[in-house]
Amino acid sequence: MHDRSHRHEAGLVRRGIVEVVPHPQYGDVILDHDIALIKLSKPVVFNQVHIAPVCLPSPGQKFDEGTAVVTGWGSMAYFCSKKYFPYVTENMICAGLKEGGKDACQGDSGGPMVIDNGVGGYVLAGLVSWGIECAMPDHPGVYTNVANYAAWISEVIAGSETCDAAA
């Protein structure tokens, strides 16, 4: 939809990164706590036409059913390392189709997995983390379970404009 190579594309908003805040437990267990926040150089003006904040889930909110949407600029095919880990922690969500065909892929890491909140917005259920190849049958993608980090995120971003999940 967007050509990021064109500097003055309509609707394009650019911001520098002032600070990266990784989760303090990232790295204690390989790929667990795979989440970080970034502070932008200037605030982004939210408007419902082009840019809106995604809603944070409630702490511990479950996403066992429903349709999720994953966004990214990653690969459409798998072509990377075979060093994957055979376990999933409670801080992760598996998502995909049993028959395959839909998944995030290399280059999408950190991208959002959102679920319609039913009232005109989206809840950030997960972040693209890892998987075995891409869109393979019986190999769902693995996402960071954002609900397990909602309290930490709220603490780090205190004072920032956020989505009203009930709106």
How does the overall form come out from the CA principal axes?
globular
CATH architecture heading of the domain at 53-157: Beta Barrel
Strand count: 7
**Helical proportion, percent range:** under 10%
CATH homologous group name of the domain at 53-157: Trypsin-like serine proteases
Q: Distance between termini?
A: 27 Å
> What is the overall pLDDT average?
82
Q: Which strand-content bin applies to the residues?
A: 15-25%
Domain Peptidase S1: 1-158
Protein name: Trypsin 5G1
Organism: Penaeus vannamei (Whiteleg shrimp)
Family: Belongs to the peptidase S1 family. CLIP subfamily.
What is the structure about, briefly put?
By secondary structure, the chain is mainly β. It has one helix at residues 150-156, and strands at 17-22, 36-40, 69-70, 92-95, 112-116, 122-130, 141-145.
